[in-house]
């Protein structure tokens, strides 16, 4: 008898699906810096009420969480100002999980998912993993989505990120309404940054059974570490996504913290709203300071700003040397003049407390105006 089977590690790799074998790991820059504005989370922290709920999870950890997150789903519906008769919420382990589940629910291998590029990088990844054809199209002038181009793809799934990550730009209501009036498949609107934005498509859900709006507790709600997100859609659409997702996806601690964050009160939803307002005000100030450094951030509707600059990766490394971590982008589509001028490169800066912003600005000032 041998103590080994006949399958080697190399054979295991060959047994894997090609898409999985070839998929790179998600690689944000994980360098440890005193000032980290690289990931668009809430740099002010989390609502105190949510942190108290977390500290009290205790014995609940020994049991399974709720099957489909029903209580949380109802509270989210209240938060969105929708009625149970008009819309249904499906929760998930982060909105990533919801987005992935939408693709699993509706995408047969070979179906297309179309989106304006650049957008949230996980979309192309989930598309690949689900055997879908990722179909990027260019933006219209002024960074609105190009509805004709999107619709012309005839893709079964259309993905709009509003506001868009990484560009921070919004999508106009006219464009969304036009897409919804003509799309023949499923329309996904990713509103991860809705709390910072000038408008939301949530109120369109009751009139469009093929629309799902996804949101998250990871950004304005300050709970990125807990992984809670949701989608809101017609009962039919949400039910199908929930089937593809499966049970027990929101863990007990996350569920309690999210419920606490949604409760009324200065240390809960009040905290979230106050800090979203603060983020918007800080964003305006950050943008005007950045302009004095000779760079031109795109108009931001989110809690981060996107600054096209040449040689962004090198700039990012030099900023790291000064203890500041920003997100750098390169190889982005260059159909828009701002990105054509920067060779498809940019940095993305999360908005947070002004002390943090001034450290970022100091580092940038030293690097851009040597
Ligand atoms: C951060 C982000 C998400 C992911 O949110 P999670 O709920 O943490 O999975 C989804 N979409 C966009 C555009 C994001 O930037």
Could you walk me through the main structural features you see in this protein, from its secondary elements to its overall organization?
The structure is a single chain. This protein is an alpha/beta fold. 39% of the residues lie in helices and 14% in strands. The chain has 14 helices and twelve strands. The protein has helices spanning 9-15, 18-22, 48-55, 70-79, 94-106, 121-129, 147-152, 173-182, 235-245, 252-262, 269-292, 312-321, 337-341, 354-368, and strands at 35-36, 88-92, 112-116, 133-137, 157-161, 186-190, 211-216, 229-233, 304-308, 324-325, 327-329, 346-350. A seven-stranded mixed β-sheet has the order 2-8-7-6-5-3-4, sandwiched between helices. The chain has a three-stranded antiparallel β-sheet with strand order 9-12-11. Strands 1-10 form a two-stranded parallel sheet. Helix 4 packs parallel to helix 10 and helix 5 packs across helix 6 (121-129). Residues 40, 94-96, 120, 161, 165, 190, 192, 216, 218, 224, 229 line the site of pyridoxal-5'-phosphate. Pyridoxal-5'-phosphate binds at residues 40, 94-96, 120, 161, 165, 190, 192, 216, 218, 224, 229.
In short:
This protein is an alpha/beta fold.
Q: In percent terms, what proportion of residues is strand?
A: 5-15%
3D shape: globular
- Report the order of strands and helices: HHEHHEHEHEHEHEEEHHHEHEEHEH
* Alpha-carbon Rg, integer: 21 Å
Helix content, binned percent: 25-40%
Write out the strand line-up for the largest beta sheet, numbering strands in chain order: 2-8-7-6-5-3-4
Largest sheet, if any?
A: 7 strands, mixed
Which residue ranges are poorly predicted, with pLDDT under 50 across at least 5 consecutive positions?
none
Bound small molecules, by name, code or SMILES, are: pyridoxal-5'-phosphate
Structure summary, number of beta strands: 12
What structural class do the secondary elements suggest?
A: alpha/beta
Residue-averaged pLDDT? 95
Question: What is the CA–CA distance across the termini?
Answer: 70 Å
Q: Helix segment count?
A: 14
